[in-house]
Amino acid sequence: MVTLRPRRIRVVCWASAVALIVTFSLIGASLQGPTGDGYGTFQRGDGFAMVGLGVLGALAILLFTRPRVQADAWGVRVRNIVGSYELPWEVIRGVRFDRGAPWASLELHDDDLMPMVALQAADKESAVEGVRALRRLHQTHASAPSRS
């Protein structure tokens, strides 16, 4: 079984999520006193709301750490930022990683391309090794009879 995840984007996302929570927490803690020339004043709930917004923003950023590709003798399971799919080797024509493409994709026999966001060009050599591993599994199992 081969399991692949992006590397660089995970580090960037976790660092960004922590920075966002810290920033919004500091902003929330500094909300005190009048709101300006008017009659309004900041309340304790306003500070908590800012922290909550920081947490929601951090969770949104962490969605980009979700992509994963798992492959075994049965086929490939791909989980992208939004959505996932499972494909048996019999429907896959090949594994593509075109020059200039942001990520690899699976080429299907019906000429569809299914993106694999977990294999990103930003990861350079680890992404290339992941594509090679998928291609080896594909060569091994694509022509084998299915276990139906």
From TrEMBL:
Family annotation (InterPro entries): CFP-6_PH
Transmembrane parts of this sequence: 12-31, 47-65
Domain called Low molecular weight protein antigen 6 PH: residue spans: 66-136
Keywords assigned: Membrane, Transmembrane, Transmembrane helix
Protein name in UniProt: Low molecular weight protein antigen 6 PH domain-containing protein
Source organism: Micromonospora rosaria
Organism taxonomic ancestry: Bacteria, Bacillati, Actinomycetota, Actinomycetes, Micromonosporales
